Amino acid sequence: MNQNTVEQPSGDTSASGGDTAAHIRRNFASDNVSPVCPEILAALNAASTGSASSYGGDPWTEKLERRVCEIFETEARVFPVSTGTACNSLALSALCPPWGAVLCDESAHINNEECGAPEFFTHGAKLLGLPSGDGRISPDLLKRALEKAASEGSHSSKVSALSVTQATEWGTVYRPGHLREITGMARDAGLGVHMDGARLVNALAFLDCSPAEITWRSGVDILSLGATKSGAMAAEMMVVFDLARAEEMDRRRKRAGHIWSKQRFLSVQLLAWLGDDLWLRNGRIANEMAARLARGLLRQPGAVMPFDTESNEVFVVLPELLLEALEAAGFGFYRWVTPPGVDGTLIRLVTGYDTRAEDVDALLEVLAAVE
Amino acid sequence: MNQNTVEQPSGDTSASGGDTAAHIRRNFASDNVSPVCPEILAALNAASTGSASSYGGDPWTEKLERRVCEIFETEARVFPVSTGTACNSLALSALCPPWGAVLCDESAHINNEECGAPEFFTHGAKLLGLPSGDGRISPDLLKRALEKAASEGSHSSKVSALSVTQATEWGTVYRPGHLREITGMARDAGLGVHMDGARLVNALAFLDCSPAEITWRSGVDILSLGATKSGAMAAEMMVVFDLARAEEMDRRRKRAGHIWSKQRFLSVQLLAWLGDDLWLRNGRIANEMAARLARGLLRQPGAVMPFDTESNEVFVVLPELLLEALEAAGFGFYRWVTPPGVDGTLIRLVTGYDTRAEDVDALLEVLAAVE
Amino acid sequence: MNQNTVEQPSGDTSASGGDTAAHIRRNFASDNVSPVCPEILAALNAASTGSASSYGGDPWTEKLERRVCEIFETEARVFPVSTGTACNSLALSALCPPWGAVLCDESAHINNEECGAPEFFTHGAKLLGLPSGDGRISPDLLKRALEKAASEGSHSSKVSALSVTQATEWGTVYRPGHLREITGMARDAGLGVHMDGARLVNALAFLDCSPAEITWRSGVDILSLGATKSGAMAAEMMVVFDLARAEEMDRRRKRAGHIWSKQRFLSVQLLAWLGDDLWLRNGRIANEMAARLARGLLRQPGAVMPFDTESNEVFVVLPELLLEALEAAGFGFYRWVTPPGVDGTLIRLVTGYDTRAEDVDALLEVLAAVE
Amino acid sequence: MNQNTVEQPSGDTSASGGDTAAHIRRNFASDNVSPVCPEILAALNAASTGSASSYGGDPWTEKLERRVCEIFETEARVFPVSTGTACNSLALSALCPPWGAVLCDESAHINNEECGAPEFFTHGAKLLGLPSGDGRISPDLLKRALEKAASEGSHSSKVSALSVTQATEWGTVYRPGHLREITGMARDAGLGVHMDGARLVNALAFLDCSPAEITWRSGVDILSLGATKSGAMAAEMMVVFDLARAEEMDRRRKRAGHIWSKQRFLSVQLLAWLGDDLWLRNGRIANEMAARLARGLLRQPGAVMPFDTESNEVFVVLPELLLEALEAAGFGFYRWVTPPGVDGTLIRLVTGYDTRAEDVDALLEVLAAVE
């Protein structure tokens, strides 16, 4: 099962139309179909006054780094960028040489949906996808991969980094113990550790642990922390815990076109998102709506859910008849590649900070109404 | 003289402080120290409602492409990105192979101030800077460079593209005839033509000609059109006139992390900027303020201005005593590398869409007050 | 099973020592442990007289291209280089863009044993290894991979090339029908086709068909044809059947440091190897010796052979006791990663143009003597 | 004046023809038109016996490293490759990051005649050519370049390495004091130092100093030492004095396709070349022949020699009439780009280890015979 082989989302996903009728938000295609969260929009407006030094020399950027260090209870360097692909790829380029390889789950976004961005930024490193099944790298598979790597010489790419996705692409969440086990193995083998935290807030909301516990205290060297999927306009940040890895990151960002001249408008989004626990609240809402959706689907005859719903993504196999009913009612979602032997079609439904109970219930009602 | 060897700007460039005292905008360091222009900010706010398809499948993006085609009076493909460095480098990568070379002026931003981004995106092409003196490539130098290229074989990088900057890094502006002469020579030699239009609005305001005339009708294949320096938050766009060059541009953008998931917020900035001639009005204001500044400086004893002020950048050599007075009064500007043999220090003063006559006059008064 | 996880070869593989005792060639580690074949060495000596134009402007290079066209019964461009890794990677770079992907068998040399060279030369393309099991890509797996690729957009690398290895890394050989089936599917999907022919001579010797039949008539666009493993000092050549792909290959070679200044000494090796059917004779000898070895091993109690021996590589699972006996007797071979659940150790034994019946028999006698 | 703008060499440069008539070697186009030197050819033949471990695990490679350490009187790591372009580019990639810049003379081979190979291997670093005039970087220009670099931030490529060419592309030779001055400045600024020693033997023959004195004792971190131009078939080596720079060089070489499987045949060329002072004798012969040629040309009316002849390259401006006479007599040479304002045509004449006094005299006689 590989989530990057997707057809176009069903349903009316345009800004006007479907969503406005009866005020039901019908777009479950992704968490990035949402608008900017009001608190962040307000902060953007407030920051747009007076002149400010460009390229990160502004006070918002400085404040952001301080705030992140507080929240993560450690010293760290922070580099804001506007997309998750850039964030992941820049991070990997600081962890893996051009002749290196990155171990990741075969479902990882970096492996499937970034059009070779990690390969571009690392100048040709290989991504080695481990087929763990539910998005969480299995210690056994990792052990075997590391043993193989240890036996290889200069004819093979040098396995240099481990990348974990939290929450995973299948909506599952690593427990801290699992994470520490695999990052420990990786670090013992000399690898650097990256975490793709495009949906870290959803994992945090599920685990109810501290940001520190699930990142650097669990062996993460560089975190890609995403805000766009939970309310920002376009804002992600590398949080670099291994400070030596931050060296030359500004040149890496600059030559990739990823330093905004008016960087205050990137930093202020992240500041507002982290402020007053907005990020965690947004994560919690999305998770609750996904849980509500999953509970409803479990009651739906013919629905099969291959994974536990631990964050804000719900995967479900449904008969085509039901999918057509959803489409007819204007609901948006992605059809995934359905594994061989499965009866029905696997789809992904994603909730966001702005999904409401009535949106979820409306979807469930459409399904329930099909005879 | 090379503008990328700059010291930190003088003056208080923070968002609070200097600028608020007496409501005088003292920051002349760059046109990217400005906030977002109110019209664009309003459009951003208005677009933040309802769900929208991600990655460019939104109605704003579609409308933007139509609007650009109208304004430029031709069919074109439009690709919005958030920085000028990304815009230039992606454009060059579609014009020049990894074993190629790009001819540009030695002062070009792509050559000096993008930390090797064109080399990164083209996978190693060379930039060959021609020393024309005032930022406008001289036909004679270009002729010689093309003759040399024609005589070379596979031991030399293949000269594949010409990149012109309009307005130039020295604030000068190519006349249409000059532009057509050099792009004609380039096209005859099989080169593609790129225009770095980070300040095209200032050139348009100066020339008072149509956007078409100074771009594709003057031989430009891909235009990097910048809005950030004249009012946007972070928005530039490639305007691809040679449609074959647009092929695979989405994959180029994606693997560079330069497709926003919520792209509507990139496109809407550009739509608002192009709408109602806001872009031209903003360009005109900046030019007028630069002209006012230049006129004042010409009356200043001891001031030497090496270039005509044709856009929104003013270069002037001033005695250190005067610079210290400006700094003491809180004015921000960049010290450039002063050419050998020049008495005094070369500085750059940049005006923006939000510069006012009283800001300029306050600066001139400080100079006039020095005995 | 993955052949790039290899330990150091057992046995005395130095030039002196083991091999000389009783004149038995004990080194079965690879076909590249052999010296230069006498006919090729003689040709090298003969070419070393008088001055010759450098960088390929010599008469040997010209003659080589003509000879290759004759042998392959078609027009082709020929580019000699000194290593197989360079040959494969340059070929792939002409078939796959930086944002592309190459489909290959998961056992492929390009995927495992070239330290990311294809990624380097293509500037970051992905290699997607299909797990066919015996080194020959299965039409079913290829079909599924092509369907997946067809459903993907610009978030995924563009599947652009198919690379087949003939003979494969497991010593098996594609039949022409099999080859035509999978290259046909690839070409229908718009992919270019590469053949890694590091051991093409062994496949030719096994199939007893014409070089044309198993290459361009079977859908191959660029062939990497290797001579080093069957007698040359260091000489391989790209044979480019799709002439448009040859454009700029000289610049690709030059910027990779793969044009010899004294190229006559590269071309003359290949000329001598192709002349008088030396290549086919060398291939046949190696195959016959491998077949003799395989026949002997099949009679050996406890030996399991996972693949048919169709070229010059023999894979066999043997109990450790037997391997220790071989090592004690000075025989060189590689231990492969043994698949889970297999009793014993998988090793690879390779024969060359210079392997003799007595060398093979000596090895078999050592095994037979173990009680 | 830039030597990479060359037309095809005049004269009959094929292996047969011109050279055989009257046994006069007429090809002065380059030092790589020569055959393999007999001593090296003999060593190649001798090494072609028995099996040997591949990829550098052979005894010749081990012996070579020991021999180089003896000759250079220090510990060093040695990496043989088959071309000078590969040797230079691999060395630079270990000295300069992708976002870095290399300072070199504007005439440098790496800058003009390697088709962007340094850019390829470094993944996009810039080469900044200093216009010193005679190929030797002037301390003044270097000082200015380093000061500029020190003033720059992350918007500019990081100046990371200095590359010197010894002997230079104009046939001049750095004196040890000059070399120490500029490498000292570079090292003080944190740069690594590379020497392109494609013709180091000619510099050594001219200076009559020890190899250590003109390399690591003069501040060189990595030397590209070329044997091909003075007798080898295709053999160069990186001599890495800064041992930390050698780390991962094997992976760099492997992924560039620059590790021969039968590496013994690369190492043995270099061993024979260094053995018994063959390299120095070959260098001396070429220098003496160039000096003889230069003396003759100085007596030739109308000849202007822009540079001192200090190695084996002679640059001379001659009237077209004389060049036509040389061409008519079958002599081979390159026409260089003639500087503006010069009357006549600048050509390059190169002598080799196999040039004889009668070859030189024959050329001079042709000139003398023109009325």
Word description of this protein:
The structure is a homotetramer of 371-residue chains. With 371 residues, chain A is an alpha/beta fold. Helices cover 38% and strands 15% of the residues of chain A. The longest helix of chain A has 21 residues, at 278-298. The radius of gyration of chain A is 21 Å and the shape is globular. In chain A, the strands form two sheets. Chain A has a seven-stranded mixed sheet, sandwiched between helices. In chain A, helix 1 (38-47) packs antiparallel against helix 11. In chain A, helix 7 links the parallel strand 4 and strand 5. The model of chain A is unreliable at 1-21 (pLDDT under 50). Chain A contains 14 helices and ten strands. Chain A has two domains: 21-36 and 284-369, Alpha-Beta Complex (Aspartate Aminotransferase, domain 1), CATH 3.90.1150; 38-278, Type I PLP-dependent aspartate aminotransferase-like (Major domain) (Aspartate Aminotransferase, domain 2, 3-Layer(aba) Sandwich). Chains A and B meet through helix 1, helix 3, helix 5, helix 10 and helix 11 of A and helix 1, helix 3, helix 5, helix 9 and helix 10 of B.
Largest sheet of chain A: 7 strands, mixed
Regions with little confidence, pLDDT below 50 for 5+ residues of chain A: 1-21
Give me the oligomer status.
homotetramer
Specify Rg of chain A, calculated over alpha carbons. Answer: 21 Å
Question: How many beta-strand runs of chain A?
Answer: 10
Task: Please identify which CATH superfamily of the largest domain in chain A we are dealing with.
Answer: Type I PLP-dependent aspartate aminotransferase-like (Major domain)
Question: Could you estimate the helical fraction of the residues of chain A in percent?
Answer: 25-40%
Return the structural class of chain A. Answer: alpha/beta
Give the CATH architecture of the largest domain in chain A. Answer: 3-Layer(aba) Sandwich
Pattern of helices and strands of chain A: HHEHEHHEHEHEHHEEHHHEHEEH
What is the CATH class designation of the largest domain in chain A? Answer: Alpha Beta
The proportion of strand residues of chain A reads 5-15%
- How confident is the prediction overall: mean pLDDT of chain A? 93
Helix count, DSSP H or I runs of 4 or more residues of chain A: 14
Which protein chains are joined by the largest interface, and how many residues does each one contribute? A-B, 63 and 63 residues
Query: What gap, in angstroms, lies between the N and C termini of chain A?
Result: 29 Å
What is the CATH topology assignment of the largest domain in chain A? Aspartate Aminotransferase, domain 2
Number of domains of chain A: 2
Q: Outline of chain A, from the CA principal axes?
A: globular
